[in-house]
């Protein structure tokens, strides 16, 4: 049987119900992640399996409330994420309709829409009467040519299965993007990597060119409830290694401590974080790494 795999970007205003929908589509594991995060930081939110298709959901972090410099960089990344996706789904709240925020997204939508499928999901249909719903659907479809419109209640599960099947069918044929045994903790690994990368960025600021990336190599649950997390900080040149390590390793220690603390707070349990700095020349050329990170280099920091 032919396998399919690809990326689906969920966009929408905060509170639209993205997390709820993801949990429905992906399964319980992800909820641990998403409910504690305010500004979602990981690009990959979850992976759903539908028949022979692997649907990788990517997120649009902080799209509407870019506060700090880093957030703004992430907004750029978010849009590029949507642009990289095979399918973009705009989520709108049925009872709120076309808000200012939705208007703003609609304005930018044509930019990301070229060459990919854009669908509409009207969520929280349990909160409105049918005529309102139909009116909203018509209104939105007049403003943008959506490939498909779904009327769903992410919370109650209405329409979610249909939507997932449809999404699966939109994805290109090809091998799965992630091994099955990594799917469950993939978002967690990404978030942890993102936290470390943020701490590095804050700490190094101008010092280092935008040429580092962080990957979570291993995530090991321990019997005492803690977890051991091994990450590698990749730099592109030998000279950068020293900068990341700092004098007597003080920079990497401080980064490690800050990242660990944030991760512990986020997870609500003890974490043992181990960072290693490695040089990987030409990592930018490694297309595989690129997609693994889910970030464009220029947007990544
Ligand atoms: N009535 C109703 N409430 C819903 C539905 N789906 C989600 N909600 C509620 O809407 C609120 C926001 O849902 P989230 O899934 O956290 O929204 P989000 O888009 O992920 O929000 P951000 O993480 O801030 O971007 C929660 O209180 C949900 O319980 C639905 O179908 N019906």
From TrEMBL:
Return the similarity comment: Belongs to the TRAFAC class TrmE-Era-EngA-EngB-Septin-like GTPase superfamily. Era GTPase family.
Q: How does it associate, per the subunit comment?
A: Monomer.
Query: Which NCBIfam families does this entry report, sorted A to Z?
Result: era (TIGR00436), PRK00089.1 (NF000908), small_GTP (TIGR00231)
Identify the Pfam families for this entry.
KH_2, MMR_HSR1
Q: Gene name on record?
A: era
Q: What is the name of this protein? A: GTPase Era
Localisation: Cytoplasm; Cell membrane
**Origin organism of this chain?**
Pseudooceanicola pacificus
Q: Which residues bind GTP?
A: 12-19, 59-63, 123-126
GO molecular function annotations of the record: GTP binding; GTPase activity; ribosomal small subunit binding; small ribosomal subunit rRNA binding
